C-alpha cells in the first residue's frame, strides 16, 4: 500500500521521469501535488501497471490532483547537457507548472538539484512507496508514450509505438538498417558496435 505523505508539509509534490534509458525521443517528467484525502487502490509505480491501467489513471490523477505539471526535454537538449541533467531539468520544468508551488518535494531516485529554496528529499524506488511519486510516474509515462506514438507515424520502421524508443533488439536492428532519425539521441550508444554506425 502506498503512503500519501512523506513530510509534514501540506503542499508536498512528488516528481518522477520516464524515458531516461531510451535511444530516441524526449525524457519526460511530471510533478504532482495530491490532497491528503486522495485514495486510489490501483495507483502504483507506472512500471507495475498495464498500459490500460495507466491510461485509466491519467484522467483521475489530473482531475483529483491539487496541481500537476508535465514537461518534455528533447533529444537535442539531452545531447547537449547529458541525460541526468536533462532528467532533472524536466522535473524542474514540471514543478514550474504547479499552482500553488509545493512546500516540499519528494523525488524518485537518488539524484536531484535544488529547486528554488524548496526543501526536497530523494527516495530510491519512491514510485513504489508514495502516491504523489507514483502519480507523477504515471503521468510522465503516459505523456511520453503519447509523444512516441505520434512520432511513430513519421518513422514507422522503428516501431516506436511498441518499443517507445527503448533499446529493444528490433529498434537496434532498424537503426542498423535505416540509420538514425532527427529524434535519436546522438550521444547515446545506439548500437553495441557503435564504431561501425555511420553518422
TrEMBL record:
**Localisation:** Cytoplasm
Give the protein name, as stated in the record. Ribonuclease HII
Query: Which coarse location class describes where this protein primarily resides?
Result: cytoplasm
Query: Transmembrane residues, as ranges?
Result: none
Q: Where on this chain does a divalent metal cation bind?
A: 16-17, 108
Q: Which of UniProt's keywords are assigned here?
A: Cytoplasm, Endonuclease, Hydrolase, Manganese, Metal-binding, Nuclease
The cofactor named in the record is: Mn(2+); Mg(2+)
Give the EC number(s) listed in the UniProt record: 3.1.26.4
Residue span(s) of domain RNase H type-2: 10-199
Q: Name one Pfam family in it.
A: RNase_HII
Q: Which Gene Ontology biological process is one annotated for this entry?
A: DNA replication, removal of RNA primer
Which InterPro entries does UniProt cross-reference here?
Answer: RNase_HII, RNase_HII/HIII, RNase_HII/HIII_dom, RNaseH-like_sf, RNaseH_sf
User: What are the GO cellular component annotations?
Assistant: cytoplasm; ribonuclease H2 complex
Q: Which SUPFAM superfamilies match?
A: Ribonuclease H-like
Family affiliation: Belongs to the RNase HII family.
Q: What is the cofactor note?
A: Manganese or magnesium. Binds 1 divalent metal ion per monomer in the absence of substrate. May bind a second metal ion after substrate binding.
A GO molecular function for this record?
A: manganese ion binding
Nuclease: is it a keyword of this entry?
yes
Question: What is the name of the gene encoding this protein?
Answer: rnhB
Q: Which reaction does it catalyse?
A: Endonucleolytic cleavage to 5'-phosphomonoester
Describe the task this protein carries out. Answer: Endonuclease that specifically degrades the RNA of RNA-DNA hybrids.
